[in-house]
Design a protein that fits this description.
Strand content: 15-25%
Keywords: Isomerase
GO molecular function: maltose alpha-D-glucosyltransferase activity
Distance between the termini: 41 Å
Protein name: Maltose alpha-D-glucosyltransferase
Strand order of the largest sheet: 1-2-7-14-15-16-17-23
Number of helices: 22
EC number: 5.4.99.16
Helix content: 25-40%
Structural class: alpha/beta
Enzyme class: isomerase
Shape: globular
Largest sheet: 8 strands, parallel, barrel
Length: about 750
């Protein structure tokens, strides 16, 4: 018999009068005391399995050991049964945290002697956030990351997304400062969102112990011990390196022998001579039993990010990840977690063709476990899953409460670049047809990653299917090729060399530089006051698209300050690996507390800001920030974040976009109320008719921003609008309760 969830939640039944901002205390457990001493420092002697001191040091530093300690403190506690956890609840998550500031630790400029976490926990910053309408901060990864080589720690290879410890990296602050950040957020009605990475770790203590075949540590990873008679198939490891990527030939040979599963569906971050396969071979390692071994391990991403094995009999990988989550929620005090790389948790050999590595049921099962555990202790999760729309829907049905909006992000960038919303409208309609609820999505402006094309739905899942586009039918593969090419032509090349292509994934840029390129600006040094005003208007247009629809709205410091990319010549040392994304991660002084700084404390150069610091903008009524405040006030006052999207109508002008949302009738006296977002993605003034079968004739149309009357819906279920360049309107269509009753 299928379970029918109750109409009333546990919270509603037990605490019907409790304000939403007051949340039940979560189960608490401390991994380390407030005044704990630092862990044992590096020792001396051999750095292999023959040195017991070295092995013990690694165990003390390992995430698995910490996970076991903290997990035991939650077991057998009554508080672990007080929250519903079986099913995702996106609207509850959106109500807890609706507008997010997404931080990037190494790019935030702080006062001398003040850490990133201390700056983020400054009450003055949270007062500014409350002024704008921001109610949550996503810290980004702040725990120790990178690797361990011998007794030494090696730096991160992927912006701290290669975690190796549950300890906060000292360059970002301390555990006490993280807890204080959470306290300040709560005092201001806000939340703090942390990261866990269920798909991989860095090459820290856990990986080094796995190489030595110590205890359960090999079970954390997708790694296979290679018999010595087959070492001739393995690449030589260059001096100073700890592994070498397998060639396609070596991958095939080991797969033919039945040792590894071989080729996967794609090679993310493919680079000739650097990463040609998803497998690498270790150097020779002496284990705790004195045996010398070489291993081959899986890494979906970079060589320094070995993949976690979620179906090893030891379940060591699962213990590590769940322990990391409990530490963040129960020890540090966060409200939610981002699940990074969570779509790549299952891999299986296929009879023919590449191994099954995307959309695998094990990923769904593992995400269900993680998300269920987080809900069980009172938090929520969101995922960044760049797969087909069907995969996003399937994973969200049992896993994370929210998903990053990889559905529409390239669509709205394409609409701005071309002045035509047709592809964006196709994305929105397809999403609705597939069954993705927009309220379950995190609609974001710029983050730390490139403008990813995110075209897998079209070129992978539906490559041969036909789609209507520009008055004809084309295949998904042709559609993806067209969109990618048009983005490249409009946003990069000689006419916009300040933006850079990032491998095959997308374009390294900021939101401001996307707009500049779309407007035909060839040199960012030539931007004058009039052009900056046009960039501001277009930036607000993109904010309206993301904020005036159901779901979370997220933006970064790069957005708040209108940051431009760093010139390539300023950061040649960061670009040697080909990772052009560093140009978009310019350092920025959000609160204007270090006006003379030229770099962040992490060494990232300060970039050019078009809008100025947050305090400067708060004092200027015409600033980007204060105009954004008005946009977010409309969103908050009318409950747009938890509305239901019901229509993406055809439009009267190619640059126009219309989204129709059904609001909560309780907020409108029981009457049916619609919110209609109307946007102009073009550089010219447009006039046109807005029509939808969802409209009721003769209902008044009101501008939510100004409160003015637009007119009434005519008998053809339409009304007319006039929009200046990059303008947007949020309109209310509310039926009369008495008329409806008659």
């Amino acid at each position: 018999m299928e379970h029918e969830p109750s109409e009333i939640t546990y919270d509603g039944q037990r605490y019907p009068a409790r304000p939403r901002s007051l949340r039940r205390p979560r189960p608490q457990a401390r991994l380390r005391g407030e005044d704990h001493t630092r862990r044992t420092g590096p020792g001396s002697g051999a750095t292999d399995g023959t040195n017991a001191e070295y092995v013990d040091w690694l165990v003390e530093k390992s995430m698995l050991a910490d996970a076991i300690k903290i997990s035991r403190q939650f077991s057998g506690q009554a508080s672990m049964w007080q929250n519903p956890y079986a099913e995702p609840d996106p609207r509850r998550a959106v109500e807890m945290a609706s507008v997010w500031f997404t931080a990037y630790p190494i790019s935030l400029v702080t006062p001398t002697g003040t850490s990133f976490l201390a700056s983020l926990g400054d009450p003055r910053l949270w007062e500014a956030f409350r002024h704008v309408g921001i109610d949550a901060v996503h810290t980004g990864p702040v725990k120790n990351a990178g690797g361990i080589d011998g007794w030494d720690q090696t730096p991160s290879v992927d912006g701290h997304f290669d975690r190796i410890s549950t300890e906060i990296d000292p360059q970002f602050g301390s555990e006490a400062e993280f807890r204080r950040l959470c306290e300040v957020a709560t005092e201001h009605g806000g939340s703090v969102i942390d990261d866990i990475v269920p798909g991989h770790t860095g090459k820290g203590a856990d990986f080094r112990l796995a190489e030595m075949r110590h205890s359960d540590y090999p079970g954390i990873y997708h790694m296979v011990e290679i018999p010595s008679e087959h070492w001739d198939l393995l690449p030589d490891v260059p001096p100073g390196d700890d592994a070498a990527n397998l060639s396609a030939a070596a991958e095939g040979a080991l797969a033919d022998l039945g040792i590894i599963i071989g080729q996967l569906q794609r090679v993310i971050f493919y680079a000739p001579g650097i990463k040609e396969t998803n497998w690498s071979a270790t150097r020779e390692v002496v284990g705790v039993d004195g045996v010398t071994r070489r291993w081959v391990y899986l890494h979906y991403f970079k060589q320094g990010q070995p993949s976690v094995n979620w179906l090893d009999p030891s379940f060591a990988g699962m213990k590590l990840v769940i322990g990391d989550a409990l530490h963040s929620l129960g020890d540090l005090g966060t409200s939610a977690l981002r699940l990074d790389a969570n779509g790549f948790l299952g891999v299986e050999k296929s009879v023919e063709g590449p191994a099954w590595s995307e959309g695998h049921p094990l990923s769904e099962a593992a995400n269900h476990l993680i998300a269920g555990m987080v809900r069980k202790v009172g938090g929520f999760t969101f995922q960044e899953l760049n797969l087909t729309m069907e995969d996003i829907k399937n994973t969200s049905e049992v896993g994370a409460d929210l998903s990053y909006d990889f559905v529409n992000r390239p669509g709205y960038q394409h609409a701005l670049a071309t002045g035509d919303t047709e592809f964006l409208r196709l994305c929105l309609r397809t999403s609705l047809d597939v069954g993705i609820d927009p309220a379950s999505l995190v609609h974001a402006l710029q983050n730390h990653d490139e403008l990813t094309y995110e075209l897998l739905h079209w070129e992978s899942g539906h490559a041969e299917d036909q789609f209507p586009f520009r008055h004809t039918d084309i295949t998904g593969q042709q559609l993806a090729k067209t969109v990618r090419q048009e983005l490249l032509e409009a946003l990069t090349g000689e006419s916009a060399s300040y933006n850079q292509v990032f491998t095959t994934n997308g374009i390294a840029c900021t939101t401001a530089s996307v707009i500049a390129a779309a407007r035909g600006v060839t040199d960012l040094d030539d931007l004058d006051a009039d052009e900056i005003e046009q960039i501001t208007r277009a930036h607000l247009l993109l904010a309206k698209f993301n904020a005036w629809q159901p779901g979370v709205f997220a933006l970064s410091g790069w957005d708040l300050m209108g940051m431009l990319p760093l010139p390539v010549g300023r950061i040649p040392h960061l670009l040697t690996s080909g990772d052009t994304r560093w140009i978009e991660r310019s350092a920025h002084d959000l609160m204007g507390t270090a006006p003379g700084a030229t770099t962040s404390s992490s060494g990232i150069p300060v970039g050019r800001s078009l809008y100025g610091s947050v305090p400067h903008q708060v004092a200027d009524e015409t600033s980007f920030l204060n105009r954004l405040r008005e946009v977010l006030a409309v969103r908050r006052e009318h409950g747009i974040a938890t509305a239901r999207q019901i229509d993406i109508p055809a439009v009267a002008h190619p640059a126009m976009l219309v989204m129709v949302h059904e609001l909560d009738p309780e907020q409108h006296g029981g009457a049916r109320a619609l919110q209609v977002t109307v946007l102009n993605f073009g550089r010219e003034t447009i006039e046109g008719t807005v029509r939808s079968d969802a409209f009721t004739p003769r209902v008044p149309v009101t501008d939510m921003l100004s409160g003015g009357d637009i007119g009434r819906v005519d008998d053809l279920q339409s009304f007319s609008v006039w929009l200046s360049p990059y303008a947007g309107m949020s309109l209310l269509l509310c039926e009369d309760v008495d008329a409806t009753a008659k």
